[in-house]
Amino acid sequence: MNRIVIPVTEKLFGTTGVRKIYGEEFDLEMALNLGKALGTHLGKGTVLLARDARITGLMVANALTSGLVSTGIDVIDAGIIPTPTLAFITMKQKFDAGIMVTASHNPPEYTGVKFWSRNSMGFTQGEERELEKIYDSKQFNVARWDELGKVSHNESAVDEHIDALLEMCDVDTIRSKSFRVVVDPGNGAACLLTPYLMQRLNCQVVTINGQLDGHFPGRRSEPDEDSLGDLIQMIKKTGAALGIAHDGDADRIVFVTEKGEVVRGDRTIALLAQQALSTSKSKTVVTTVDSSLVLDETVERAGGNTIRTPVGDIQVAVKVVESKGVIGGEACGVFIFPDAHLAPEPFLAACKVLELMARTGKSFGELVTTIPQYPLLKSKIACPNDKKESVMSKIATVLPEKVGDVKEVLTVDGLGITSNQGWVLVRPSGTEPVIRITCEGQSKNAVEKILKITEEVVSSTVASA
Q1: Are 81 and 50 in contact, with CB atoms under 8 Å apart?
Q2: What CATH architecture is 376-464?
Q3: N or C end of the chain, less CB within 10 A?
Q4: What is the pLDDT along the chain (465 residues), one digit of tens a residue?
Q5: Full-prediction pTM beyond 0.85?
């Protein structure tokens, strides 16, 4: 067996938490020291710890536990549960912090750690920087042998979460319809929650990829149009009213109509925002820079305003708090309902969709047709992490001229260019060694043209870096 050498990383934290390839960029010593760093940061208290179904999850969780206990911090181990459940229970039980061992929607070779505050929000960039400073210094608290932290277990977190969700929606109206729903947890943590939540709502539940398996054998962990073919076929075969898909740690949710159309998250946010704005004093909706302009237009028609942030659910949550927003979310399938808590809440989003269907008597497909859809394409170009900064700098000087007819250039998160034909966003991924490209425009031809130009610029810049 070859000896594995973990290279020095330029940046420990990405878009959300730490997320790296196990054995190449991440090992158990890193997990141990992350636990020590958090324990040192907190000084005292109790941490709720959980994991998703990844093969490396138990090892990493045990290493984190050891690090925390060594600093005198008590640990409550909740086992395998969804990330939103960990965040919610951390807030409800008033734990001092929460740790989720997960790499979210990344492939199975990745592992990682997300940190959650007692208010249910993920650690902010400032908190992450403080944690990374302690991690790098290796100046950790060391508890005496008789002052070490204690480890106990929580086996009721999912049930507590489901009970709370049922109090946040019109259960009786949903139950009266007995909707048939196909659930695809993607072999991830949602296996333990979504099918049972749907049953409690008197839905006729069909589940595919419903067994926990960290290899994600059923499909790619990221739920999108390319990976949800089996779900689409099952919806058509069973005549289901709705399809629901999750990623590995279940902080994302993607909805599929009764006709098999995979609906982008920003359109669903727009649909739910209309409803929320009609009953709330708050008129602010928060989303990220890569959401469709359709969201802004829909919110404006409903009497609200939209604020955009850099990509990442924590960025959205921070701005939701600052602006007292009514709802927040990302196009990838993240929904934040501040009246519930400040972490992504996909399960409540599912309840709200079913509630809207039940109250209006309309199918999800009929409801979502009220939200226009502009042509939108995405792409990604491989780029080593240590080259991202120089690559983006060069792209910023070249791409605007190549796109032409530029109306606006934004650098809120990456490089955003708006032209007379549409817009393009180029940003370095915070979770993978790639540069992501998103384009939207008034016609398919315009979007394809912008995407082709951008791909050529990014590819050539990476190659010459």
Answers
A1: yes
A2: 2-Layer Sandwich (3.30)
A3: N
A4: 333 333 333 478 877 889 999 999 999 999 999 999 999 999 999 999 999 999 999 999 999 999 999 999 999 999 999 999 999 999 999 999 999 999 999 999 999 999 999 999 999 999 999 999 999 999 999 999 999 999 999 999 999 999 999 999 999 999 999 999 999 999 999 999 999 999 999 999 999 999 999 999 999 999 999 999 999 999 999 999 999 999 999 999 999 999 999 999 999 999 999 999 999 999 999 999 889 989 999 999 999 999 999 888 999 999 999 999 999 999 999 999 999 999 999 999 999 999 999 999 999 999 999 999 889 999 999 999 999 999 999 999 999 999 988 888 988 888 999 888 889 999 998 778 999 999 998 889 999 999 999 999 999 999 998
A5: yes
Active-site pick, 70, 104, 120, 292: 104
- Select the CATH number that applies to the domain covering 160-259 from these four: 3.40.50.1820, 3.40.50.12650, 3.40.120.10, 3.40.140.10: 3.40.120.10
Q: And the tokens for 351? A: 């309840």
Angle separating helix axes 265-279 and 293-301, nearest 10 degrees: 20
In CATH, what class is 265-368?
Answer: alpha beta
Is 104 marked active-site? Answer: yes
Helix (H) or strand (E) segment spanning residue 192: none
Q: Which residues contact 70 (CB under 8 A, 6 or more apart)?
A: 35, 36, 39, 140, 142, 143, 148, 149
Which CATH code of 2.60.40.420, 3.40.50.10350, 3.40.120.10, 3.40.220.10 fits the domain covering 18-155?
Answer: 3.40.120.10
